[in-house]
């Protein structure tokens, strides 16, 4: 299984981002990825990026788009109305990494 690192961002950095991480792990696991997820709030993004390398950022609240890491809106994925689109976008990102 290919290992990937995901930064999961929600407004508080706890409940929603944990739910998002679990769902990402489940869905990407079906595609052969071993997902390591870190949950933060928007204020913790820069600290997390400074202490680790991430393949993409999944977010459910507004964030800046200046981190040098692909960002993907996960609100539709979390609610179930956009799961396929989210997974397709993430797989495109991961497959472009080589």
From TrEMBL:
The keyword Membrane does not apply. The lineage of its organism: Bacteria, Fusobacteriati, Fusobacteriota, Fusobacteriia, Fusobacteriales. Residues 4-98 form the PTS EIIB type-2 domain. Keywords: Transferase. GO terms for biological process: phosphoenolpyruvate-dependent sugar phosphotransferase system. It comes from Sebaldella termitidis (strain ATCC 33386 / NCTC 11300). This is Phosphotransferase system lactose/cellobiose-specific IIB subunit. InterPro entries: PTS_EIIB-like_sf (IPR036095), PTS_EIIB_2 (IPR013011). It comes from the Bacteria. One of its GO terms (molecular function) is protein-N(PI)-phosphohistidine-sugar phosphotransferase activity.
């Amino acid at each position: 299984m290919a290992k990937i690192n995901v930064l999961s961002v929600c407004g508080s950095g706890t409940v929603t981002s944990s739910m998002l991480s679990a769902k990402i792990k489940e869905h990407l696991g079906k595609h052969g990825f071993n997902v390591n997820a870190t949950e933060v709030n928007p204020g913790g993004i820069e600290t997390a990026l400074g202490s680790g390398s991430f393949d993409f950022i999944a977010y459910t609240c507004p964030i800046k788009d200046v981190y040098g890491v692909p960002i993907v809106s996960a609100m539709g994925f979390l609610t179930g109305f956009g799961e396929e689109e989210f997974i397709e976008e993430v797989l495109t990102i991961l497959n472009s990494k080589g």
